[in-house]
Amino acid sequence: MNNQKRVERKLKEKNYKKFTGNKEEGQGFADRRKRKIEHEYRKMLKKEKKASAGNVKHISVLDELSEEEATSTGPTESKQRSSHKPVGTYSKAHHEYKQTKMEKDRKKKEARKRKQAVDSALEKYQQKRQANYKLLCKRTSRGQPIMKHQMEYLLEKIKKQKSSKT
To answer: Which PANTHER family does the record match to this protein (predicted)?
Structure first.
């Protein structure tokens, strides 16, 4: 009887404690509070960032303006600069896009040149091999290899080795 009552009591307790934060499940409420505070903090940081970003010009634009002022020599140039509007985000992004596109094109051209050089070297090598093969494979009417071509090939090889050593 006692066992049955204990089991029933435990079942009631388990059904009663369906929320998070009880002792069995750990720090449920504390975790929820912590997450809420963290969320509020991040929200506040975003708002501050937006507010400060709207008022300040981009650093690179400021650098360009200071360089232009340093290089200016006459009053006409300063008047022209004052009529220019500050660089917007779209124009800046467009300028960066053009630069990256030009960089990619340049890299592609370099890669094509390298590939073309490798291909031409391979083709030259293959032609030389084919010519040597044709000479070395020539046979007499009886099927014997022509020794004249064999000897010439070996002589060329020896000359190349001597010239590379000295």
So the answer is: THYROID TRANSCRIPTION FACTOR 1-ASSOCIATED PROTEIN 26 (PTHR15657)
